[in-house]
């Protein structure tokens, strides 16, 4: 049984609920067509994200250029004092000043700012979608784009000539299977509440269509191409969905269905069994000093802990990771001689560069964003799924700093967070409206 009623699109505030623009704004900036154009740039950013890094960067920069003339700077500055906006800024400020004590070359410190700089867009997205009524367009654009990618992925399995990128692996038309898994998993869980609502309303045709789409995303991950990290965050998202949207009895039913489906998939998917079996094989490569995915991670983590212990409070500075690995690799051979700038763990990535100070800021940001989305609202579920998926997947990757996963976080938190904050603003305004003393109270109405 669903514990809350879900609208079929994200609930957003209307323009009349939004804060009024200051009189200094020029009329062309206030025009609905101009604001629609700005919203469209964010939609195109979401559409481009699964396919192209260049197009994604182009559209988000174009959106920012269109946004700047519409900003009420006093209002924006006030919003920066709220934790949801302040923590991403604090993260960037720490990375910025961390260049000063970086142990690596100066240009490495500057390059080290790039993965963190995208967090600066979160306050602007929160500000914009606090007043925009078109947040649902962004979600629809992203899911539609991923649906096309999923269909193409199934085609590529049959005919590899359909690959767009020559370097892509089997079943992956563009980019890589890690990015593709992250996108498909999010889409499946973003659609799950809509499936639940359609089912409870007996809209069986819509429910069947949503179920087919969700099944297509999950089946592609389990039979075609999947990151092994997905085997960790998929169960977490499933439990989270049950806790947020189902009664206890329905939750038990979901767990039973998931276990039965998991057993069926395990017995029918040689791909999945091989992916899991490879972990044990790759673990043995660690002792043999031979490069392999699991062995590489273990090596990176062991070295990263040593680097962190050498500078536990403020770390080695922004962009220092590669320099540290280069120094440690001197005289080594095989796996121990590998040089990387990503230890494949978000916490260690931050700890090496900015020590405990950075780790505190990282987890404070995650905690603040989790708290923002821990409420019963359609947009809140989207944001919650994004934050939890990023947090869990970052145990085995530096996903906040990776391009696709990092931009999913920025867009998800910024757009969904703006909707949640806008709804809270509307609620506060309605509570602040004084009641008409001439109006009859509830008791008098009932008595009449």
TrEMBL record:
UniProt main location, coarse: membrane
Stated name of the protein: O-antigen ligase family protein
Taxonomic superkingdom: Bacteria
Subcellular location, record wording: Membrane
Keyword Magnesium found: no
Domain O-antigen ligase-related stretches: 216-362
GO molecular function ontology, one term from the record: ligase activity
Native organism: Bradyrhizobium denitrificans
Transmembrane segments: 42-68, 80-101, 113-129, 136-157, 177-197, 204-224, 230-247, 254-272, 351-368, 380-400, 406-424
Chain positions covered by the region annotation Disordered: 427-448
